[in-house]
Amino acid sequence: MTNNSGRRKSDSDATSCRCHRFGAIAVLKGFVTIDEVKAAIMDQVEDDLSGCKHRLLGNILFEQGLITENQIETVMLELKKEP
Q1: CA-CA distance, 55 to 42, in Å (whole number)?
Q2: What is the pLDDT of residues 8-65, one digit of tens each?
């Protein structure tokens, strides 16, 4: 099954799921708060809707000084462990 962008539905689901998992893992590890992740997701959506280049959630949090590069790496390692 494909969506309007031509990607398979599962590809789209995996992309959005990875974003939410990144935020969830970062919160569970105590790197950021739920409110900080929500605000970063809103920034990401606003960028996408205004035609700006898509930014990854970790990059947004890093640019805002809320997470370090080492913390991003830790979250990414956790993501790689998940099926």
Answers
A1: 11
A2: 443 334 445 556 699 999 999 999 999 999 999 999 999 999 999 999 999 999 999 9
| End-to-end C-alpha distance for the chain, whole angstroms | 22
- How many structural domains does the chain have? 1
pTM summary value: 0.74
Give which of 32, 30, 54, 59 is closest to 44, Cα–Cα: 54
Measured CA to CA, the distance from residue 34 to residue 65 in angstroms comes to 15
Asked whether residue 2 is assigned to any structural domain, the reply reads no
Structural domain span for residue 38: 9-81
Single out the residue of 67, 81, 80 nearest to residue 57, CA to CA: 67
Alpha-carbon distance values, 41 to 1, 6, 25, 31, 81 (Å): 26, 23, 14, 16, 23
Count the helices and strands in the chain (H runs, E runs): 4, 0
Does any domain span residue 3?
A: no
